[in-house]
Design a protein that fits this description.
Shape of chain A: globular
Number of helices of chain B: 19
Number of domains of chain A: 1
Strand order of the largest sheet of chain A: 1-2
Structural class of chain A: mainly alpha
Largest sheet of chain A: 2 strands, antiparallel
Largest interface: A-B, 37 and 34 residues
Strand order of the largest sheet of chain B: 1-2
Structural class of chain B: mainly alpha
Radius of gyration of chain A: 21 Å
Oligomer: heterodimer
Strand content of chain B: under 5%
Order of helices and strands of chain A: HHEEHHHHHHHHHHHHHHHH
Order of helices and strands of chain B: HHHEEHHHHHHHHHHHHHHHH
Helix content of chain A: over 70%
Helix content of chain B: over 70%
């Protein structure tokens, strides 16, 4: 038997969380070191999975299967394909950088890292689960620590409101999807929650048409699909930096990924039937999100709405049901994850020093914080879809895919790129260039070396992927071909 | 003539009685300052009974014993273990409760109530059932009003007595009709009725059971009694006592009306409507509560509604899911009341607002609160999540998707008020005070019980396969 790498990835953060909880609360440094060690461990493991995933074989790899409840056909069935492997790596990266960014948390760091790791476990679990029941199990685990993380360590002004709103939205979405999953379980008559088996269930077209929307939209709530996106910017703004990174960087991918895995892959006929509607909703996301982002004066709200816009591109790619569109969406999930993590990290560093995130009140930050400034600019270039950066690699195929389906949607969606360029450049100019307000003189301390590690890692990934798309695109493509096989064969 | 299976059928009850007598004897011998040790004696005795019953008293097949008075089957067995476990935890919570822990009577009454519940779970004759219910209820009336100097406790005891006696009488009237029409006191006799009459009789009996498990609209006693009764007793009342009611409900109706019977559609519909009303009312009223015991009272009304969702499916899956739900619920709610008991012992308050800063005053207690309340909400990896999924699965399987939807909407309401409580515990601070200066020390019985319960909730929630097998074994012999 080979080394069960996926279950180690899932369970090591939980084990670490328990160990951290048992450490005495006042040993803050030891707790942080323990947290960092765990994060490094998870990052290395996820990198290992990414590097050793065999693209020539494609399909599900690193498969593990343990019976969990045979009477119900529930098993701990784990495996990764070309779509989920980059997302596992993404989670590892965000977890690592998130721990680094949270180094300075003074209020109960023990509980903070424990909840953060519980969240990370849930996220890893969703990405690698091949069992529908387990997917839900991990999905809920990933959702509820958010409440505590935001409510306890968040921004005092809105944290209670935002945390409750977020939790209620996500919980409603997930239980609606759960209902669909139960319906699939009983309808299939196969007595199994195994998704690879359920793919072959051949649900009747009527059944698929009824249940596709609840399942897809239930999950897509977490992906920030319009008109259920409202929780997301509030949540981003209220959350502490590391949690915003997790939230926008990884959690929203969770929704999109589960919508693909459960919605499109298990109910392909339903997906074909409803794809035009999803396309329209996603189009609204893309354009509306960009416009709203443009009028924001709070940096975090701006990034929050830009996330809504970019996640719309992911949904748009899925809804094309074409190879280019879906491959682009797959890469976009990774690219956007790294990009927003970088944005939130940079914004957090500015806020910690200036104590404001209002764009008009800031200025000239590039001088005291050159690293942060450059990182933010790189993130901005990715966001605009500039060639040479990962955003281009992801967004260009999406628009190609959309063009094949409905050219006019592509034309409208491309508008968002122009608007994105406008608000990103405005924000960069007003925040990092120009005159620095007098009250900041001498207050802006340089960032720590460890913060630079996070910024360099995140920026490097985006440039690397932009220059060498070959390191990820073929892998995602191999996963998408499997999806297309299901769509074509049904 | 006594056979081994007869002895085995009532082995837990016999041992409970022996333990009760033992406690009574030591109550006379020991001086009043060492009477707290009666709690250790009771708890360890209960643990012994639990282990011994698991080891030797497991029924191989469903048999009628004592001339059809009792059934020796898995339904009775599993629930008996659950009651004994509940009594054990309650004993630990009682030990350091004011005026409760140093009195021998309180432990003896608890043991007698446990005997009554055990008999309820296996009774298969109307007379036996009635006696068992009264054996449970009378000690509980006394325990609820145990603190004589406390106005609220007295009120709780008296209110519980009045409502309980009323419900018993109505149920007894139903029993008398069965005997009058069929000349038999066996539970099976109900099946011999023709349609309209059967519904009348069932309705009468149902009122009695609905009172026990606090289904709306027979839940009115619950908030007042839960608030006034000593907290450990409230915990017992809301868990074991409720589970006993469900055991009777399942034996009485699921056993006698299989899904193929002519009564099934009517019966299912009535149950579904009751479940809907109960869930909705419990959750909505719980929203506006400011006292934690009252909030949990309404929440436990709501949970009875969720469990009832499993009953409507009239299937093996349904019975299994209800039993699993009750196992998870008993552990979770006991933990919740344990926290309240430990907290109010130090602070003397049950107001939700006073829980501000609790997680700083005692981080461990805060974590246990997190486990218990998230389990009540139905979040993984805690027991409540799997329990809820199974119950809703039973509803979906029975083609009652609307009922599952109602359940889901309700759990969202539940999420809101449970999170609000956790918010107070974790987020709010004590005004103008340093929390570290006001710790909440846990005495050893609380620490033991809360640790056991936390791990039990996690065990049920993560390794749910074996637990569900136990729960669905209950269905054997029922159908």
């Amino acid at each position: 038997m080979t080394f069960p790498i996926l279950s180690v990835i899932i369970f090591s953060p939980i084990v670490a969380a328990l160990i951290i909880l048992m450490m005495p609360a006042e040993r803050k440094t030891e707790i942080r070191v323990m947290a960092l060690m765990t994060a490094v461990f998870a990052l290395l493991l996820s990198l290992w999975v990414y590097l050793t995933y065999d693209q020539s074989l494609a399909g599900y790899q690193f498969i593990e299967k343990y019976d969990w409840m045979p009477a119900f056909g529930i098993s701990l069935h784990l495996g990764v394909d070309g779509i989920s492997t980059p997302l596992v790596l993404l989670t590892g990266v965000v977890m690592f950088t998130g721990v680094i960014i949270s180094w300075g948390i003074e209020d109960r760091p023990r509980e903070f890292f424990a909840f953060l790791f519980l969240l990370a476990s849930g996220v890893f679990g969703v990405f690698v689960a091949l069992d529908l029941f387990m997917l839900f199990f991990f999905y809920e685990i990933a959702v509820f620590p958010m409440y505590l993380l935001i409510a306890i360590w968040g921004w005092v002004k809105t944290r209670e409101y935002a945390a409750m709103k977020l939790t209620l939205y996500l919980f409603i979405g997930s239980v609606v999807a759960l209902l669909g999953a139960l319906a699939m379980y009983f309808q299939s008559g196969m007595g199994t929650f195994d998704m690879l088996m359920l793919e072959t269930a051949n649900f009747s077209p009527e059944f698929q048409k009824i249940w596709f929307l609840p399942v897809f939209l239930g999950f897509a709530v977490l992906g920030g699909i319009w008109p259920f996106h409202n929780w997301s910017p509030d949540g981003h703004v209220a959350a502490p930096t590391a949690v915003s990174m997790f939230h926008a960087g990884v959690l929203m991918k969770l929704g999109a990924f589960a919508a693909l895995r459960v919605g499109i892959m298990l109910l392909p006929e339903g997906a074909k039937f409803w794809a035009p509607l999803i396309l329209m909703l996603a189009l609204v996301n893309v354009v509306y999100g960009a416009f709203i982002a443009m009028i924001q004066t709070d940096l975090k709200y701006m990034i929050g709405f830009s996330s809504v816009s970019h996640m719309g591109l992911v949904m748009l790619g899925f809804a094309t049901l074409t190879e280019q569109g879906m491959t682009g969406a797959g890469v976009q999930m990774f690219s956007h994850g790294v990009m927003t993590a970088l944005f939130f990290a940079a914004t957090g560093m500015v806020y910690d020093r200036a104590h404001t995130r209002k764009i008009p009140e800031l200025g000239g930050m590039i001088k005291p914080l050159p690293w942060v400034g450059f990182a933010f600019i790189i993130g901005g270039l990715v966001s605009m879809g500039m060639p040479g950066f990962s955003g281009f690699v992801a967004e260009f195929p999406i628009f190609m895919g959309v063009w094949q389906v409905k050219p006019w949607v592509a034309i409208l969606a491309v508008i968002s790129i122009v608007i994105t360029a406008a608000y990103i450049m405005l924000a960069i100019r007003r925040t990092f260039f120009g005159e620095m307000p007098k009250e900041f003189e001498g207050h802006i301390t340089p960032i720590k070396a460890i913060d630079k590690v996070a910024l360099v890692l995140l920026s490097g990934l985006m440039i690397g992927l932009g220059i060498f798309p070959g390191i990820m695109v073929p892998m995602v493509q191999s996963g998408i071909q499997n999806v297309l096989r299901i769509l074509g064969g049904a | 003539m006594f056979t081994t299976s007869m002895i085995m059928a009532i082995l837990p009850e016999i041992l409970l009685l022996v333990l009760g007598l033992l406690v009574l004897a030591f109550d006379l011998i020991w001086k009043s300052e060492s009477k707290r040790n009666l709690g250790w004696l009771t708890a360890s005795g209960l643990l012994f009974i639990l282990v011994l019953s698991v080891a030797i008293a497991r029924p191989a097949e469903s048999t009628a014993v004592f001339g059809g008075m009792l059934r020796y089957d898995m339904l009775g067995f599993v629930f008996k273990l659950l009651f004994i476990f509940g009594a054990m935890m309650t004993t630990l919570f009682m030990m350091d409760a004011e005026k409760l822990g140093k009195r021998g009577e309180s432990y003896i009454l608890l043991l007698v109530a446990t005997i009554g519940m055990s008999l309820m779970a296996s009774a298969s004759d109307l007379i036996m059932l009635y006696l068992a219910i009264e054996t449970t209820s009378i000690p509980m009336y006394i325990l609820a009003g145990f603190m004589r100097d406390d106005k609220k406790s007295t009120e709780a005891g008296f209110k519980y007595l009045l409502f309980g006696a009323m419900a018993s009488t109505i149920m007894l009237y139903g029993f008398s009709l069965i005997f009058g029409f069929t000349g038999s006191t066996a539970l099976v006799a109900i099946t011999g009725f023709s349609m309209p009459l059967a519904i009348g009789v069932i309705a009468l009996i149902m009122i009695g059971i609905a009172f026990k498990i606090s289904l709306a609209p027979f839940h009115f006693w619950a908030p007042d009694v839960y608030e006034g009764a000593p907290t450990p007793i409230t915990g017992f009342l809301s868990t074991a006592s409720k589970a006993a009611g469900f055991a009777v409900l399942m034996r009485l109706f699921l056993g006698l009306f299989p899904a193929t019977s002519q009564y099934a559609p009517t019966w299912t519909m009535v149950m579904a409507v009751l479940a809907t009303i109960t869930m909705t009312l419990g959750n909505v009223v719980a929203l506006s509560q400011t006292n934690i015991k009252r909030m949990l009272a309404y929440s436990s009304v709501a949970h009875a509604g969720y469990a009832l969702v499993g009953v409507v499916s009239l299937s093996e899956l349904g019975v299994g899911s209800v039993t699993f739900y009750l196992i998870a619920y008993v552990m979770t709610n006991l933990a919740a009341f344990g926290i309240i008991a430990a907290f109010s012992k130090v602070t003397g308050s049950d107001e939700i607002a006073d829980y501000a800063g609790m997680s700083r005053r005692n981080p461990t207690l805060g974590l246990v609160a997190l486990v218990a309340f998230l389990s009540l909400t139905g979040m993984p990896p805690f027991g409540g999540f799997v329990a809820k999924v199974f119950v809703f699965a039973a509803a979906v399987k029975a083609d009652m998707i609307w009922l599952a939807v109602v359940g889901i909407l309700n759990s969202i309401v539940g999420l809101y008020y449970y999170l609000t409580f956790l918010k107070v515990v974790y987020l709010y601070r004590m005004e103008g005070e340093n929390e570290e200066a006001h710790p909440i020390p846990l005495t050893r019985p609380y620490a033991i019980a809360l640790t056991v319960l936390s791990f039990a909730i996690l065990a049920v929630g993560i390794i749910f396969g074996p637990w569900f097998n136990i729960a669905s074994s209950v269905a054997e012999g029922l159908f």
